[in-house]
Amino acid sequence: MEIQHTTLLIIGGGPGGYVAAIRAAQLGIATTLVEGDTLGGTCLNIGCIPSKALIHAAEAYHQAHHFMGDSTLGIQVQSASIDVTKTVLWKDGIVARLTGGVGALLKKHGVKVIKGWAQIVDGKTVDVTPNVPDAQPLRIQGEHLLLATGSVELGLPGMPFGGRVISSTQALSPTSVPKKLVVVGGGYIGLELGTVYRKLGADVTVVEAQDRLLPLYDEELVKPVATSLRKLGLQVQLGCKVQGMNAAGDAVRVIDSAGRESELAADQVLVAIGRVPRTHGWGLEQLMLTMQGRALKVDDQCRTSMRNVWAIGDLTGEPMLAHRAMAQGEMVAEIISGKRRHFAPAAIAAVCFTDPEVVVAGLSPAEAAKAGLDCITANFPFAANGRAMTLEATDGFVRVVARRDNHRIVGWQAVGAGVSELSTAFSHSLEMGACLEDVAGTIHAHPTLGEAVQEAALRALGHALHI
Q: What is the pTM of this model?
């Protein structure tokens, strides 16, 4: 067996792994990256990017149907149709360009990329089975081992993927639109994809075990999303648990909180109940690392319990966000190069690309109170924002949370059309330790949705100008 040597050996070419590899190479560290599937990981291939592409396509199709009626804009179209196969090809084209770009960047910086499946031998040694024709197995030894294997979809016991039961991965590459779709899980993945299929013409029912949708977000933020879902005609069953398929295999058995059982007819069933760290199938058990639940335990430098073995991204648990993994990967590369770094972000913004979108960064009012902080909270509605009116997108608001004593901002939340783009402003103000006066005193361009950020800060200070 051929033996290769490197300084940094990375398992996993997702957002965390490839960013770590690029940064390490920039710093002069000999780096080898092992990826068994396609570069870009879940995010680029079967997650963030393809889902947003389908969200855009579904919204465009939905708008076309809207213009077939009595549009307030005066636009009228005679008919609208969609070729789902062509839409998927367009989506796949975007994915291919991005993953190809990642490969080009790795090559440009001199990272050695090995396409194959890794199996850990010990903390410095990995055996690789290449997935390239005629390639022979090899052993790679590195001074540092970085684990970036990501996560996998969580299945439902007694309801395995296959047949009518599909995962989000399969839902992102439809060959047709089912007449009736049941979505198990009312979190962000279930609602994003459920909305896509509803806009494409499917009858969609979302089943959620808890008593409200998006249970990780506070009720005030979720309310505009729930209202929008009702307008779309998407059905929701809360406080219900899925028991499996019926005997005929054409309906989902559901039991409510009172113990009553019913059946939901389904041509397809999308199970979207979350993701778990990918800890099996590649020899992690050989290292006997300290775990924290299902995730690998790491410190504030992403060190595991074994010297020179590092872990980043979804493998280390929540929040499972691509941008968190990227930041961790960059940091680990810099630490290995000799720089002094710690992973201590003031906040990591999270976005739910529902209709309308939801973005949170820092502490919510409830979280601030739980932390013992006396805070001011203020909302500014998009109904009072000129740009939102011109976009016919007046549902939602921006909310700021700041300490009462020194006005330092500790959290931002927003719900509305396009608010994902406000996440940058939210992260900046939190990372820089901004106070309400800093944001309120900054001139914001008019007319923009971003004016709602300034107005929320002004309102918290008691002198909003446009409400």
A: 0.95
